[in-house]
From TrEMBL:
Keywords: Hydrolase. Belongs to the acyl coenzyme A hydrolase family. InterPro entries: Cytosol_ACT, HOTDOG_ACOT, HotDog_dom_sf, Thioestr_dom. This is Acyl-CoA thioesterase. It comes from Pseudidiomarina halophila. The keyword Protease does not apply. The keyword Iron-sulfur does not apply. Residues 109-132 are annotated as: Disordered. One of its GO terms (molecular function) is long-chain fatty acyl-CoA hydrolase activity. Residues 1-109 form the HotDog ACOT-type domain. CDD domains: BFIT_BACH (cd03442). The lineage of its organism: Bacteria, Pseudomonadati, Pseudomonadota, Gammaproteobacteria, Alteromonadales. It comes from the Bacteria.
Length: 132
């Protein structure tokens, strides 16, 4: 699992109980997973098809730095399936795990699925710089 990006939990990200709002973290997961998939496949024309099991494990609070770990789980002809772990940067505790995030590569004109031409082995061999 590669932890590739971080976000600071701000006041606007909180729910009524003062912890990170679940909807906000899901928004971040979708965005971070898209960026990862687009970089891995070297393609911009991706759409989110499915997000499977989501498990909220612990809370995050204002001022916490959360980081996103992403990994390729499966590669199809026109799709890629990812796993995302969101954890607290300081404590390393998992905040949320989203499994089976599926993106489909589409033709921009027809909006129909289009082969992306990558294999799981190719994607696993891509070197990505991680933040310090």
């Amino acid at each position: 699992m590669r932890f590739l990006s971080r976000r600071l939990v701000m006041p606007n990200d909180l729910n009524f109980a003062g912890s990170l709002f679940g909807g906000r973290i899901l928004e971040w997961i979708d965005e971070e997973a898209y960026i990862f998939a687009a970089c891995q496949l070297d393609a911009k024309s991706l759409v989110t098809k499915h997000i499977g099991a989501i498990s909220f494990e612990t809370s995050a609070y204002q001022g916490d730095v959360v980081e996103f770990g992403l990994g390729v789980k499966q590669v199809g002809r026109s799709s890629v399936t990812l796993t995302c772990v969101v954890r607290n940067k300081q404590t390393k505790q998992n905040i949320c795990v989203a499994d089976d995030i599926v993106f489909v590569h589409i033709d921009p004109a027809s909006r129909q699925p289009q082969p992306h031409g990558k294999t799981k082995e190719e994607l696993e061999s891509i070197k990505i710089e991680t933040p310090e």
